[in-house]
Amino acid sequence: MPGPAFLTGETVALRTIEEEDLEFLQTQVNDPAIWRPIGNSMPLNAEQEREFFEEAVCANDSIHLLIAVDSTPVGTVGLDAIDWRAGSGEVGYWIAPDHHGRGYGTEATELVLEHGFDQLGLHRLSARVFAFNDGSKRLLESVGFSEEGVHRDAAFVDGEYHDVHRYGLLEEEWASA
């Protein structure tokens, strides 16, 4: 059972990530449909997933939430590298392959953006997407992000170099959308 709901939308609830969620997370991040788009080319065992939980999920400069639909975990969304002085952070997300195409990622991203801008007082959020990840590009653009540039051959994923597209969204752009 996922942790308590932190943010709720029409379809998804964003819940705290708890120890009992680690098996779901480890299973999903080892699926090529997930690790390839997030650029994690190394397999993760249970101990490594626990380390991620203890070091990243429990850190003060990030927010990692489980996306749940009717108490079923379907993915994660969060804000990383929060710089409180600059008022910036980076949004990241993934949805389990069995749940792609249902709008869960879009709704979860909107909820975390609203929280970042309206509750945390952030001014700018960014995102990185590999050139081959058209679905993620569409998601970011649908919630108001603008492509700001391309870092050529900046990532080595699945045996090849790939361009990394950089996206950004300012607080006033979010508020006017």
The global form is globular
| CATH architecture classification name | 3-Layer(aba) Sandwich
Distance between the termini: 35 Å
Radius of gyration: 15 Å
Percent of residues in helices: 25-40%
What sequence of helices (H) and strands (E) makes up the elements? EEHHHEEEHEHEEH
Q: What is the number of E strands? A: 8
Provide mean pLDDT, rounded.
89
Protein name: N-acetyltransferase GCN5
GO molecular function: acyltransferase activity, transferring groups other than amino-acyl groups
Pfam family, one: Acetyltransf_3
Domain N-acetyltransferase: 12-168
Describe the structure.
The protein is of the alpha+beta class and 177 residues long. It has a single domain (5-176), classed as Aminopeptidase (3-Layer(aba) Sandwich). The chain is built from six helices and eight strands, in the order E-E-H-H-H-E-E-E-H-E-H-E-E-H. It has helices at residues 22-29, 32-38, 46-57, 104-119, 134-142, 171-176; strands at residues 5-8, 13-16, 63-69, 72-83, 88-95, 124-130, 146-157, 160-170. Strands 1-2-3-4-5-6-8-7 form an eight-stranded mixed sheet, sandwiched between helices. Strand 4 (72-83) and strand 5 form a beta hairpin. Helix 1 (22-29) packs across helix 3. The longest helix has 16 residues, at 104-119. 32% of the residues are buried.
Short structural description:
With 177 residues, the protein is an alpha+beta fold. It has six helices and eight strands. One of its GO terms (molecular function) is acyltransferase activity, transferring groups other than amino-acyl groups.
